[in-house]
Specification:
The protein has 575 residues and is an alpha/beta fold. The chain is 62% helix and 10% strand. This is Type I secretion system ATP-binding protein PrsD.
């Protein structure tokens, strides 16, 4: 069966097409339900116009039993389609959650201001709409013309009256959308801003408390909160007015239909049974429209969430797996590498070209703001705005699957973040824990004995251990994580920034041990002691390579840079 063009539009619509059979079954159940919902109308016509005048009790009992059976069928069909949609929502989540997780992670990596939680909120919004009452209206709405046709068959005036009320309800829905869309959007944005502001301040609670900043920050938070509440109140006020209008129309339509039917009975153009049946048909005809009006806000929210997910998955496609066929050696080459940032007019790195050979130790030095950390991120493929090429064993690093690439790379950022879980899980990168390799990585960085002194050793939760870990201890655990599994390429950004002499000595031993094993180690440092472990030194200044050579020829420039670091100026090297 050929896939319609709409379902070829994106990965998300293709996923909906994948579940077409489930949606078809829901449609069949809806057909059964809506056809059998004519049962009350036909039953009323028979009771009022035939059984009450003919006094045929046995026939009345038989027909009543048949009606009860049909009602049971309706109830079963309602339950079945509800259960199927709930199951469909779960299957949709299972099919997309990993993709959304990877995509929102990459999105946050590229644009740190993006909120990764929002992507899963969008997925939840779409799933809840599919499993909620709102979607039933879209399955039931196509059957409204059948009820309308029956009303016209009873009397044309009743059909016209139903059309009028249908038009009014649709008009209310359009009016509601136009009136409430902007206030609701502003309210949501203000609410997110309040939550983000509060979360960012809680992360720095110690600084805020120690410096007595709580009162000042509370006033700022209160300003954001009051604006949010003001917008929320205005939006709710508009929605309540629309809801009151909808209720007025709903009550009016039932009474006017009954009144119109009574008038036709008086004039002899309709039977009493037809009058009662018309009122039931009117309610059934307009119920899907009424439901759509009631769930219009939810539909708009789900539509925006759907479009946001489409955009997220389109901007961050799944990387092909299986491109790494053998163990990577660790040779890195950069060609015309340009790294930019959206908030900077000038590039951070300006056309760098260099090669970092397999099995060598390379030190990157330079003044603050010269682009060293940016270069480190480019080398491991996590800087978003890059031109030129970063090749790992002649393969563009951005094309490699991160989960396949991860075991071959060790990376230690400046700011070490340890995650919720045990010490062993953090070192083992939350994969299957190889105890021997975890201990080996800890011993390399000189923290094995320290971890054994923790309350539960390697099984100590980081939440429990983190309360008494110093910055240097955290950095050494992060270093053990970077060295876990013997990766081929290790990139360390200021690995000795928080280390004491003992920790720095352990770091130097670990680097020399890695060099002896033929690993490629690239580190950034301002301290001279660690430079003795390097084979080559790259001097970076203002995003440009000033020198890159064997250690001895470059050491004078590196020493001068270290001496003038506090001034942020790189001393020119001798010619």
């Amino acid at each position: 069966m050929k896939t319609p063009s709409f379902f070829q539009r994106s990965e998300l619509t293709a996923t909906l097409w994948f579940f077409r059979r489930e949606f078809l079954v829901v449609g069949i159940f809806s057909l059964v339900i809506n056809l059998l919902m004519l049962t009350p109308t036909i039953y009323m016509l028979q009771v009022y116009d035939r059984f009450m005048t003919g006094r045929n009790e046995s026939t009345l009992i038989a027909v009543s039993l048949i009606v009860l059976f049909l009602f049971a069928v309706i109830a079963f069909a309602e339950w079945s389609r509800s259960r199927l949609l709930v199951r469909l929502g779960v299957l949709l989540d299972e099919r997309l959650n990993s993709r959304v997780f990877n995509a929102c992670f990459e999105s946050h990596l590229n644009q740190s201001r993006d909120n990764p939680v929002e992507a899963f909120s969008n997925l939840t919004n779409v799933r809840q709409f599919i499993t909620g009452n709102g979607i039933f209206a879209f399955f039931d709405a196509p059957w409204s013309p059948i009820y309308l046709l029956v009303l016209f068959m009873l009397h044309p005036s009743l059909g016209v009256l139903a059309l009028v009320f249908a038009g009014i309800l649709i008009g209310v829905a359009v009016f509601s959308h136009r009136v409430t869309q902007t206030p609701t959007q502003k309210t949501t944005e203000a609410g997110v801003k309040v939550a983000v502001y509060l979360h960012s301040k809680l992360r720095n609670a110690e600084v805020i408390e120690s410096l007595g900043m709580l009162g000042n920050l509370r006033q700022r938070w209160l300003g954001h909160h009051q604006r949010h509440m003001s917008l929320y109140s205005a939006a709710q006020d508009r929605q309540r007015r629309i809801q009151a209008l909808s209720k007025f129309i709903r009550y009016s339509q039932q009474s006017l239909m009954l009144g119109a039917g009574a008038l036709l009975v008086i004039e002899g153009e309709l039977t009493v049974g037809g009058m009662i049946a018309a009122n039931v048909l009117m309610s059934r005809c307009l119920q899907p429209i009424d439901t759509i009006v009631g769930s219009w806000t939810g539909w708009q929210s789900a539509r925006k969430a759907f479009e946001a997910l489409e955009s997220l998955l389109r901007d961050h496609p799944e990387r092909p797996a299986g491109l790494i066929h053998e163990a990577l050696r660790g040779t890195v080459r950069i060609e015309n590498l340009v790294a930019t940032a959206s908030n900077r007019a000038q590039p951070i790195l300006a056309g760098l070209t260099a090669e970092f050979p397999e099995g060598e130790v390379i030190a990157i030095v330079g003044p603050s703001g010269s682009g060293k950390s940016t270069l480190a991120r480019c080398l491991v493929g996590i800087w978003p705005e890059v031109q030129g090429r970063v090749l790992l064993d002649d393969q563009p690093i951005e094309t490699l699957d991160r989960e396949e690439l991860g075991p071959f790379i060790g990376y230690l950022p400046q700011d070490v973040e340890l995650f919720e879980g045990s010490v062993a899980e953090n070192i083992a990168r939350f994969g299957d824990i190889d105890s021997a390799q975890v201990i080996e990585a800890a011993q390399r960085t000189g923290i094995h004995d320290m971890i054994l002194r923790f309350p539960r050793g390697y099984d100590t939760p980081m939440g429990e251990a983190g309360s008494f870990l110093s910055g240097g201890q955290r950095q050494r655990i992060g270093l053990a994580r970077a060295l876990y599994g013997n990766p081929s390429l290790i990139v360390l950004d200021e690995p000795n920034a928080n280390l004491d002499d003992v920790g720095e000595a352990a770091l130097i031993r670990a680097i020399l041990d890695l060099k002896a094993q033929g690993k490629t180690v690239i580190f950034i440092s301002h301290r001279m002691n660690i430079l003795a472990a390097a084979d080559r030194i790259l001097v970076l200044d203002n995003g440009v390579i000033r020198n890159y050579d064997q250690r001895q020829p470059v050491m004078p420039a590196a020493q001068a840079q270290s001496t003038d670091q506090s001034a942020g100026v790189l001393t020119p090297q001798p010619a």
